[in-house]
Write a structure and sequence with these properties.
217 residues, 6 helices, Jelly Rolls, binds fe (ii) ion, globular, single chain, 4-stranded antiparallel sheet, alpha+beta
Amino acid sequence: MFDVFKKKSKTSSEVFFQEHRYFLAKNLLTPELLEHIQISWNAFEKHPFDQVFVESEGIHREDSSWVKPFTTVEFGAAPFGVFLLTHLQKSIESILNLELVPTYNYSRKYNRNAVLYAHRDRPSCEVSATICIDQETDNKEPWPIWLLNNKNYAGYKYESFFGLSQKKSMQERSSIGCKAISMQPGDVLIYQGINVLHWRDPLEGNFSKKYFYSLCR
Ligand SMILES: [Fe+2]
């Protein structure tokens, strides 16, 4: 029922997206565009523009062993976000060989110890994209986003996702095919939002800025 992406394919990226339910588009943002977004975002973090960002306390799951408090900062209507909403549409359509309609976007800054618990996206996120804008980690390496893409999880209950994926040990994750995707600024991860479980373990670093983008057919 949710296997909506099956059709005759031509491009390697389209085939990969159909088979693996995701595709990593390296350097899809040009250096100039990336720099523009980074400078804009930094400016919005300063008074008085910082008032348009909403800082939220993170909430840990009760069945999680992670307890350190954390915050995230979200901005749903950043001008650069509105621009990317239409600017990236043709690129993503071309990569997937699909005609798509943008549904929404938002920008989120994860602060130290932030966790993104395993979930799939809502129906309006038939195709989701997450873009790495900027990051400052302790080990200078990207903060990975994890995927479990071995089947369509659209029909599964939300409560089951953590136990099925993120709660597992690294060895168990490996054995069931979980993937840790490393992204540099400018990289765009496109995935079947309603079908792929995705998460991030606690951030060991000062911040990671991500832009989220959703499209529907
Ligand atoms: Fe998500």
